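Dissemination and training. As part of the outreach component of the grant, students in the summer workshop were shown how a complex can be specified as a set of sequence lines and then modelled as a single object. The example used during the hands-on session is reproduced here so that future cohorts can follow it. Participants entered these lines:
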Amino acid sequence: MVVIGPVDELVRKIITPKKKISFGGAALFLKPMEVVREIIRQEIKGLKIYTLIGDLDIDLLLGVNAIKELHASYVGLPMVGMAKHFRTAIEKEQSVVFKEWTELSMVRAFQAGAIGTPAIMLRTLLGSDLVKIRDDFEEVTYKGKMYIQVPAIVPDLAIVHAYAADKNGNVYYPKHHALDEFSTLPAHCAKELFVTVEKIITNEEGRDLIKNGQSTMFSSIDTDYIAEAPRGAWPSGFPPFYASDMGHIMTYSGMAQMPETFQMYLQEYIFGEKEEN
Amino acid sequence: MSSEYTPIDQIVVSLSREINNNETCYTGIAIPSAVVAVQLARMTHAPNLKFFYGGYWINPDLDVDLFTIMTDTEAFRNSISKAQGFSHLIRLYEYWEGPKHTLSFGFIRPAQIDQFGNINNSVIGDPNHPKFRFPGGAAAGDISNACSRVIAYVPRHDARTFVEKVDFITGKGASPEWRKRVGLDNYTGIASIITDLGILDFNSPSGTMRVRSIHEFSTTEEIRENTGFDLEIPPDVPTTEVPTQVELEVLRTKADPLEIRNFDSRNR
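and obtained this result:
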């Protein structure tokens, strides 16, 4: 039975250190930012995070030293610049173990997790030094052809942001949508699924959406926890409702450069009473 | 319409000329000059190109920039009547190795590239304790072995980017012999590199990087000084064909009126 509750309560209940957690979204789109902010407010540390393309979500969590192990194919602020805390955590503090994947190998590992196969083969990694430094990537031969075998990713919990959910726990696509696979891929492979939504609707409203030709992104079989978080992806974008807030990302990037200004950012946008969105 | 043009205009125009009619390609939004080059090619010499953009649109013809349609409800709705088709992001990840194999080329913007075309978007120094951590390759480590060929571009040609040997191979280079040995000979790897100084490729006798042409506003010496290894410069190396009036006009008025290409000259 799906549990519907406020973001802070659910975060307190289900996000614990050592859990393997995948984040939906990528590259300043569809990130579960309200949950990220709540993790910071509750000072949860020691997380193991999987995300295809990390941006502000990862840099914020690294800035407060919340992540112990990170899996991603890229961590940066697209169109803005480097992710400051990602670099500091790896180059100077060595406070995080970073496991780099290529985009396709990580997608395949999510897909393998979703269908329950323990590993999957692909060819795009051939020739990459990533194979040399990852002891869980293995060169294999199948019917005379070379492949790289990578392990499936099976997170304990996936966290994604989506459009609307009804009381039964069905999560709906908006009428026009794109890039949803950035969220469904890391969700389908996980043991539990936590979805924040722009709005909670009644079961009747949900059925009306289906009658009008819309469809579910996750059914009530998939979802375990749901919380309402209007503009919960902000400052990442949610097509087609709101744009990635590039002005804010630039402000963040500037304030992340010095510890003092980063603390001011946290006070203003995370610990403060009201968020500017 | 002024015939003056910037280095980034030359990069975009040269990128677009690497594209042939009747090909199929994909781009995301994080490499703006590549997106603009594809739109420019479609609007000039490659009208039959199939361009899969942003995990959703096929051949979008837009009067707003491609970033806006991702995130503005009204622009998104308007884009629907101006595109030739719609797909799903997941198909991209299937095309890369699936049976359709329809992607003719992809783009890379390398942080480091060496004389063999190996690219490094990962680390400088010991991978476990790097001196410098780049953001990571995302798909840059995949597409050399997933698209028929790769077109690379470097907005600022310097010796930090063009190195004799990359610190770390995120994605394998041209290396035709290696490709044959592992059965990837259908994939060229990086076929050409467009920079703000010239155009480079691997069509030298030794298969290492050479200069194919030098931009009108650059020189042989400038390329040598800004490259960290001895690259082949043929004595009769030509000047890159400058952007035509038509290309510049289409670029400025239709392919990139909001100048998203300039993100590439600001940020590396």
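Chain A touches chain B through 54 residues (CB under 8 Å). Students were then asked to discuss how this feature might be tested experimentally.
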